[in-house]
Amino acid sequence: MLSPSRIPIIDMHCDLLVYLSDVPGSLIDNVNEIGCATPALAQGNVKLQTMAIYCATAPGSTDYARLQAEIFRELAISKQDCLEPVTDITSLRQAMQSESGIGMVAAIENASGFCEEDEPLEDGFRKLEKIIENVERLLYISFTHHMGNRFGGGNMTDRGITRDGKMLLDYLHGRKIAVDLSHTSDALAFDILQHIDQERLDIQVIASHSNFRQVWEHNRNLPDELVQEIIHRKGIIGMNFVRAFVNTEDPEAMLHHILYGFGHGAEEAICFGADYFYFADFPDPTRYPFYFAEHEQAGNSYTYLLGRLQQHLTQEQLEKLAYKNVQRLLERLWS
User: Fold this and answer.
1) 184-197, pLDDT tens digit by residue?
2) 88: alpha, beta or left, given left = phi > 0 and alpha = psi -120 to 50?
3) Which stretch of DSSP H or E encloses residue 40?
4) Is there a domain that residue 152 lies in?
């Protein structure tokens, strides 16, 4: 039986690329500034980390996302760090076996990163192809962030899908890129599912970094109906460590989210999506601390949670949560 510190980890979401593109003097190994710095990932036994390419919906969004894609490419080819690109099943399995390296795969958080509000959609698709060329493999695309854009409504809205959103889904058919529901409005999420079903599209649906609304009422968390849809579609649901989405008062609540998932049919879906990001310049003081002390660094958060869960879950269940559910999905998605 593996000890919690020896169980491999796959995490579905962090904002390391945003930190490296945004913060003057940022360093990939600065554990004092971001919880997913490379020494913390190595200490936490993270074998594959999803790197989000994020931008707000605003003029210049595609330039900002292009910069992050270029940073990803530089990290992938650099021989001075421990990061290795994971682009297929072979490199995935190599990353899971690695003793020293950390695998990484790119994703897009907010489709405004490849298509601005006022440009032809066809130009946006060309920019998306350029991002894919730079990063080699995209794991998922989130249509929106907190607010809406030309594709639909974000999680702070009640807007559904737009014509461009449906065209984006049509474009993704058979591309082996998942659609992420973590930042959609409920209306957009259900519209996405309806369009996929109506058009019989070959698209995997996931929630990369969302918790359970039944445990903590927040519009960033999933209502039960969406939880069951993701489970039914063999997707994954990544547990988010940000305090606002866990419970603002109770450090134990992360355990409650995980156990709720196991108790409500998500044993084959639940995983980690910690959502580590740089927040030192965040203007809203009510959000601090952004993470409970138990969850603020990748170096100890996964081990702490797995250790606490040993009294509730079997070894096989712990490994499903830590890496097996995501690895199984990736091997199916990329085959």
Assistant:
1) 999 999 999 999 99
2) beta
3) helix 38-43
4) yes
**Start-to-end C-alpha separation, the chain:** 30
Cα–Cα distances in angstroms (integers) from residue 259 to residues 23, 298, 305, in the given order: 36, 20, 11
Question: Residue 244: which residues within 8 A CB-CB, separation 6 or more?
Answer: 218, 220, 287, 290
CATH classification of the domain holding 254: 3.20.20.140
pLDDT at 1 over 90: no
Other residues' Cβ atoms within 10 Å of the Cβ of residue 20 = 20
Spatial contact of 10 and 67, defined as CB atoms under 8 Å apart: no
Q: Are strands 138-142 and 9-14 parallel, antiparallel or unpaired?
A: unpaired
Tell me the two tokens of residue 251: 């450090």
Alpha-carbon distance of 328 to 23, in angstroms, equals: 35
Instruction: Report the alpha-carbon distance of residue 84 to residue 133 in Å, rounded.
Output: 16
Residue 2, in any domain of the structure = no
Q: What is the CA radius of gyration of the chain?
A: 18
State yes or no: pLDDT of 80 exceeds 90.
no
Between CA 31 and CA 26 the distance in angstroms is 11
Report yes or no on 112 lying in a domain: yes
User: CB-based burial of residue 244 (10 Å sphere; 0-12 exposed, 13-18 middle, 19+ buried)?
Assistant: middle
**E strands present in 68-101:** 83-85
Residue 13 contacts residue 47 (beta carbons within 8 Å): no
Residue 1 within a domain: no
For residue 144, name the pLDDT band (cuts at 50, 70, 90). Answer: very high
pLDDT value for 148: 95
The residues, ordered by sequence, that sit 6+ positions from 72 with a Cβ below 8 Å of its Cβ are 17, 51, 53, 104, 106, 134, 135
- Report how far residue 92's alpha carbon sits from residue 167's, in angstroms, rounded to the nearest whole number: 31
Domain count, the chain: 1
* pLDDT tens column, 27-42: 999 999 999 999 999 9
Q: Is 207 helix (H, G, I), strand (E, B) or coil?
A: strand
Cβ atoms of 65 and 17 closer than 8 Å: no
Question: Residues 52, 182, 63, CA angle at the centre, nearest 5°?
Answer: 35
